[in-house]
Design brief:
AB_hydrolase_fold, Lipase, Rossmann fold, eight-stranded mixed beta sheet, alpha/beta
C-alpha cells in the first residue's frame, strides 16, 4: 500500500497528472528536448539561491583527442579558508539537468554546509550514453584540485548527488575504494541505484508521484544503449567494503526509488560502513527542486547535510 503524499504537493501533482493525460491524448511522445524543458521549468521552483562570495565558471577537456569540453562551476562561501570540497553531481535521469537547473541547490549546499562546491555539466544521454557521464565524473574526482587554483581547501572530499547524480556518486564510491582520491563521505538524495527496476516500490509508486515507472524505463533505455548488464552496473549490487565512505541517505517515502535506497543502506551497514538514513514523510522524488512548495523539508535536508559534514 502506498504512503500518502503531503497535502503541500497535492495540487501540484494533480496539475502534472493532467498535463501528462493531455499529452497522451494528443499523441505527444517523450523526447529529450521535452524532458529537458520540463526539468528547466521544474528547477524554477527551487527559487533563487543565496549570494556566495566566490562563484566561478570553467571547463576542462575530458579527451585530448576529441577535445570534448565539460563545463563546471565552483562555489565557495569563504575562498580564503580551507574548507571541505563537495563534488555535486546533479540528477535528471542521465538525460536532463545542467549548471543552471541546479544553481540554487548548489548555492544552498555551499552556504549551509560551509563547504566549497564544484558542480559538473557532465555529458547527457541519449547523445552521450553510458559510461560517458561516469567518465566525466571520474575525471573531476581525479583532477578537482587543479580546478581550485587560487582557492583554499582541505583534504576532505565529499560526493553529493540526487537521483541519477546519486547513481554516479555511488558508482564512484564503489570504484574508488582501492585507488585514486580518498572519498571521505557521500550524500545521496533519493538516489537511483538499481537499473534492473526490480524493487517493489517501482510498482507501488508507478504513477501519480511525479517520477513514474514508464519514465524511469525510458530514461534507462536512452542511457543504456549497448546491452549493458544492468545488475552489474547498478551501484546497489556493486561490492561494498568497510572502505566505502560514510553515507548520508535522504529518502522520500512516496518515491518509486525508495526501496533501492533502503536496500543500499543495508548493504553498506552489513559491510561495516557508517550510514545515516533520513526518510521524509509525504515527499516525492525530486522534492528538493520543489522548494517553493516544501521549503521546510528542503531546509531540513541542508541541515542534515551540514550536521553530517561538520559534526
Amino acid at each position: 500500500m502506498a504512503n500518502s503524499v503531503s497535502t503541500k504537493l497535492t495540487a501540484f501533482l494533480e496539475k502534472v497528472s493532467l498535463a501528462r493525460q493531455q499529452a497522451l491524448q494528443n499523441s505527444i511522445q517523450p523526447t529529450p528536448e521535452i524532458a529537458r524543458t520540463n526539468m528547466q521549468n521544474l528547477s524554477a521552483m527551487s527559487g533563487e539561491g543565496p549570494e556566495i562570495q566566490y562563484v566561478s565558471d570553467g571547463s576542462f577537456f575530458i579527451s585530448a583527442a576529441t577535445r570534448t569540453e565539460i563545463p563546471f562551476r565552483i562555489y565557495s562561501p569563504a575562498p580564503t579558508q580551507k574548507l571541505p570540497v563537495i563534488l555535486h553531481l546533479h540528477g535528471g535521469g542521465h538525460m536532463c539537468g545542467d549548471l543552471e537547473c541546479y544553481d540554487a541547490i548548489s548555492r544552498k549546499m555551499a552556504k549551509f554546509t560551509h563547504s566549497t562546491v564544484i558542480t559538473l555539466d557532465y555529458r547527457l544521454a541519449p547523445e552521450h550514453p553510458y559510461p560517458a557521464a561516469i567518465d566525466d565524473c571520474k575525471f573531476l574526482l581525479t583532477h578537482y584540485r587543479e580546478l581550485l587554483s587560487g582557492i583554499q581547501f582541505n583534504d576532505e572530499i565529499i560526493l553529493a548527488g540526487d537521483s541519477a547524480g546519486g547513481a554516479l556518486a555511488a558508482t564512484l564510491s564503489a570504484s574508488q575504494q582501492n585507488n585514486g582520491p580518498q572519498i571521505s563521505k557521500q550524500i545521496l538524495v533519493y538516489p537511483s541505484l538499481d537499473y534492473t527496476m526490480n524493487q517493489a516500490s517501482i510498482d507501488t509508486y508507478q504513477t501519480g508521484f511525479l517520477l513514474e515507472k514508464a519514465g524511469i524505463a525510458w530514461y534507462f533505455e536512452n542511457y543504456l544503449q549497448h546491452g549493458e548488464e544492468r545488475r552489474q552496473i547498478s551501484p546497489l549490487y556493486m561490492p561494498a567494503t568497510s572502505g566505502m565512505p560514510s553515507t548520508l541517505l535522504i529518502v522520500a517515502d512516496c518515491d518509486p526509488l525508495q526501496d533501492e535506497a533502503y536496500a543500499y543502506a543495508d548493504t553498506l551497514k552489513n559491510a561495516g560502513v557508517s550510514v545515516e538514513l533520513k526518510t521524509f514523510t509525504g515527499m516525492v522524488h525530486g522534492f528538493m527542486q520543489l522548494n517553493s512548495l516544501v521549503e521546510e523539508e528542503c531546509a531540513q535536508v541542508y541541515q542534515w547535510m551540514d550536521k553530517f559534514i561538520n559534526s
